[in-house]
Design brief:
The chain is of the alpha/beta class. It contains 13 helices and 14 strands. The chain has 2 domains: 163 residues, Glycogen Phosphorylase B (Rossmann fold); 164 residues, 3-Layer(aba) Sandwich (Rossmann fold). α11 links the parallel β13 and β14. The chain is globular and about 65 Å long. The protein starts with a strand and ends with a helix.
Length: 349
């Protein structure tokens, strides 16, 4: 089909990256992103070669919501999309409401087992809802749901951070990659920093993504900071963020991470052993539900944030050897979602 697609999602990587995966399939000339005016959101989308238009929406600000609705209406009428795709977050509401009023078909992406409030609210007017887990049934209209999985990016950026770190040569057999979500995790950061020496003493090289804000306030190197063990072999590489995750997954033996849906989809696809620490304050504790589904498939071990300790981590690393299943998940979600969009364009759904 030759129709156009508007994609809208909130500021986190878990919402933006599945939309970028879809846009990579359709091409930049057929896609328009509408989202927040934050520089980071605009920058990520534009770095991948797609056009991004911002709307001035913030929580509990009626005037800004009115402006966001008006601007969304203008963008939709000018771009004339065949379908609008939303991946969740309050910033998507003005776009989706205007799409409904202008009678443009809506497709929703729900990456988590427990759907977000926006997905539940907009499910009443959406034509289709693409979900990542069969367990979503019971939360959303079953007649609109199709289980596609979570779309993964077809290609990754090779930006300045990638060019700086790709010259590093890992000198140990064990590599632990630590992720705290797209914005980092204060609890995980503090726990790991207290155990850098212990991990290096056990022969682990650690690659730790701490989040941009945390890195800026604690470290002063441009792309990464290196901490060396006494023997000079094991090292810790602390980074603010890293866009080309496929490269880091290729270096890693084990990942310690939050349980966001996009992270879980990537870990499954790249067959990486994982220790999951769900964010305890996520809406309706949805990260715990996500993690439990992966643990049941014997693809990860789950630890409570409140119980993080060296003994718990050490035990989890040992357990991974016995519970690990090497059954990977094929990367077919992107095409499955795009097929649903094509069918909406053709009026077959």
């Amino acid at each position: 089909m030759s129709g156009r697609v508007i994609l809208t999602g909130s500021s986190t990587g878990g919402h933006l990256y599945p939309l970028i995966a879809i846009a990579q399939e359709f091409g930049s000339d057929r896609c328009l992103f509408i989202g927040s005016e934050r520089k980071m959101d605009v920058g990520i989308v534009q770095e991948y070669g797609f056009r991004h238009l911002g709307i001035p929406v913030t929580r509990f600000h009626p005037l800004r919501w009115c402006r966001a609705l008006w601007r969304s209406r203008r963008y939709i009428r000018e771009f004339r999309p065949s379908v609008v795709v939303g991946s969740g977050g309050y910033v998507t509401v003005p776009v989706l409401v205007m799409a409904w009023l202008l009678r443009v078909p809506i497709l929703l992406l729900e990456q988590n087992i427990i759907p977000g409030r926006v997905t539940r609210f907009m499910s009443k007017v959406a034509k289709k809802i693409c979900v990542s887990f069969d367990q979503n049934k019971g939360y959303l209209p079953s007649e609109k749901m199709v289980t596609t999985g979570n779309p993964l990016r077809k290609y990754w950026l090779k930006d300045a951070a990638y060019k700086a770190f790709s010259s590093v040569r890992i000198q140990t057999d064990r590599v632990l990659l630590v992720l705290g979500g797209s914005q980092g995790s204060l609890a995980i950061n503090r726990f790991l920093e207290a155990n850098y020496e212990v991990l290096m003493g056990k022969g682990y090289t650690v690659i730790h993504l701490v989040g941009r804000a945390y890195y800026k306030s604690h470290y002063d190197q441009d792309y990464y900071t290196m901490i060396s063990a006494k023997d000079g072999l094991a090292k810790v590489y602390v980074m603010p963020y890293f866009e080309n995750m496929a490269y880091l997954y290729g270096l890693s033996d084990v990942v310690l991470a939050r349980a966001g849906a996009t992270t879980l989809a990537e870990l499954s696809y790249y067959q990486i052993k994982a220790i999951l620490v769900p964010y305890p304050y996520a809406t309706e504790d949805h990260q715990r539900s996500n993690a439990e589904a992966i643990v049941q498939q014997k693809m990860a071990i789950m630890l409570d944030e409140s119980l993080l300790s060296w003994s718990a981590l050490s035990s989890a690393l040992l357990q991974l050897r016995s519970v690990w299943s090497d059954a990977s998940v094929p990367d077919c979600a992107r095409m499955a979602v795009c097929d649903q969009i094509d069918q909406l364009m053709a009026g077959r759904l």
